[in-house]
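Appendix B: complex inputs.
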Amino acid sequence: MALNGDEEDFEWEPPSEAEMKVIQARRERQDKISKLMGDYLLKGYKMLGECCDVCGTILLQDKQQKNYCVSCQELDSDIDKDNPALNAQAALSQVRERQLAAQSPPPTQAAQLNGGASSSQSGGSVPQPRPEHCEGAAAGGRALLPPPAVPPPPAPAPTATLAPIRPPVPPPSSALRPVLQEAEEAVLTKLRWATTQLQSSASLEVSTQLCGLITSCANSLRSLKELSQ
Amino acid sequence: MAGSPAACRIPTTSWSRTAGGRGATEKKKSLLIDRLMKSISNVDILELAAVYEFHGEGMTSVEHLHLKHVLQTVCALEAVVLRSFGPDGGQVLFTRSTGQAMLSRSGTQILKALHLEHPLARVVVDCVCKHSAVTGDGSKTFVLLLASLLRMIHASASKAPIVSECSKSTEAAAARRLADKLLAFATSELADLISVSVVPRGFCVSAEDFTTKTQPPARPSDFRIQTLLSSFFHTRLDSVHCGFLSDLACELLTRWKFQNDKLSFFLQFLSDNFPALHTQVSGFPVSSSRLIEGQVIHRDFSTPCLQVHKQPVRAAVFTEHLQPTILHQSYVLELRCGGRVTGEESIVPFSARTERSLESVIATLQSFGVSLLLCAVKQSTAVLALAARAEMCLVECVSEDELSLFVRLSGVTPISDCWRIQPENIATLTFCRAILLGAHRYVHVAFCDSSGVKPCSLVICAPGEAQTDQCTSAFQDAVRVLLTMWEPVSTTEATTLKNPVQPHEGTSLHAHCPTGNAAYRSDTCALKPGCVIPAGGTFEFLLHHGLTQHSRSHSASSCTNLGVNVCQILANTLLSVPRQIYSHHPKRFLQAQTRITSLISDRSRPFMAFKNVANEDPDRGDTPSKRFMLDLGLESISCKYQLLLAVLQCATSLLRVDAMVRTHTALCSPSHKLTNISEESTDDETED
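Resulting structure:
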């Protein structure tokens, strides 16, 4: 075979740390898939000779002749977790990145917002918040998580854009307005982005999720407007 | 059921190697199919990798396989058997829609009970079943080793330089080469390596070791078959009954051992006749299993058994009907008398004539003193009546296995022609009586003592039917394990690659092996029969150590294109077995590994002297390490070696499969295998 010629051009180098993490994650995912498939086989599912179109995993068929793909329907998708439309974390990190790149205005003191989540992140004084906080906030709607680094004032934790908005109880103070304006801008940016994505999207699921995002952005804007009045 | 239409697509990327670009055209598809079909007709069916014919919709389609599909299939099967693996593994309870339950810890039974339509999965299960049919054990270890081997091969092959479009085919080719190298190494050097690094740490068990707890061993450090069987039953049944059942098995073997005969001969006899030699009884505790003298025929008497005390009992075996069977329903009988068809009233003299001939047969039997008739078929009512009147016991519809065993043990020939009954057709039995086992009544016969063999039959009791089946299959596999342990191992490449072993050819192949080896090599049996080693991963640790040292010493010469060491891959694969055994206690894995490594380096005093029962054993007494080893149980080295070879051959053949051809057929029959070839049309073996 003419493969020896190829090998002379390339030298195998050990993978970098990032690549190792990716390889490790992939291996764990494959192990999970195998374990789930083994469980289903023992439950009486049939292993078919076909593969899933989306992810390439072997399909299983239950007793009602329905095909079932273990990785698509049970595990979180490998690539979807980086898609901002489908994942809160990815969306949040994208917004954050954009804000950092745009060199946002000096940090403002933000009063504590009562009740649940605000619809977007506050000023850029917050050093890169970690996804773990976002996850916690997105999952439980917890109010505030102070960031680990030491900024002078504890700032409200950033939260997911998809989290439902609860109307804040205390009347708005003057210090709140710039925060609200920034929040509005961020939501509008997200809305614009979602619209462009929706126009170009071909998949049904992605479109549905984008519409959901647009709805929640609109709701957030409404609440922000109420807040500022 | 038909596959979904989407599966008929041909993945476009896989054509890049042959077509040189994306997008396969119809012409190229049909070209490949033509080539495949032509080659199938030219090559011998037996020597090719197998692919299974299964349902497809629409036109014939070819699906190329990638390494990750192979890996995913085998890993899924591994996940299935993993939970039952090892002495601490669990049992799997299968229930059918009919309500019938099956309880199993045997890898073969679990895998066979799964619904698998994927051809690769079925190839793997087939390999496992064939291996298990020969050796009796090791099916879960097989899948475990196969999965970890394929993972290692995949990891090594993916280190190959990635050229964007051809990455998958490069990977597949690299994996194939690696597998071939592994197999070549295993067939040529592995046996020597085992005999150097593992066998000196083990010991030989000879046939005189059939001691049970009723006969205390001569020395406390006597390693017995009992320990081996006990550890086997522990992995197959449970820890509560393994001791009792292994004692029972030892007793069975002791009583069946033909004196002055080769060990493997009587084990083969036991293995072949096991269905006729055991009775399953449900509803009793396992501890009421026992041995019964003689043979149990699993039928009841058709005529009342009146005489019990007349000894010795004479018996005759009939294979045909005593009364001609022409007087059955739906037969039209034409009676001719001198060329003219006689009327209906002549049926009466005809039947009277047949009855008179029957009476004469019975009278002949009575003159020989026969009181037991064993028949393979159902006799007519006239025969039953006459036999009852003559005070003969009649047993009908005896199965073929049992009849052949009876004939073998009593040394008579069955009567095929009722008019010629000779003295050699009459058997002499010690007794014949009815026996009540569980809910059934059977016929119990005992033979006069001949050639020192005391035939006995096994009664296996268990609380439920599923458990009796489990115990029975465990016993059967135990006999096969012992048979494999005492067979001389064939180690030449010629033998392993060229002779496909079918289960029924087992004995003939083993008979050929020594002669074949003797011409090929001077030391034929590097792995002497009867070698055992403590269980619990000892074999794997020792061989791992040996392989690592071997790879270090040959590091200069064993360079491959990928810079991967074949020995190292094999060594790492082996460690997956003890890792899984100690998966619940990771600390014990490290403890065991360090203990064995330290004992290896302690050369001044070998922890296991290679000893034979006949040799003088310098009695050093039981060192703590020896006692530790004893607690783990024993396993046979030749079984392990054959397992490794089988795993490597299966991996090689899996990686050689290049494409799945989906054909449009009406029936999907699992026994009908079509062959598929890789694009190189290599010969290969799916079984050792």
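The first strand of chain A starts at residue 46 and ends at 51.
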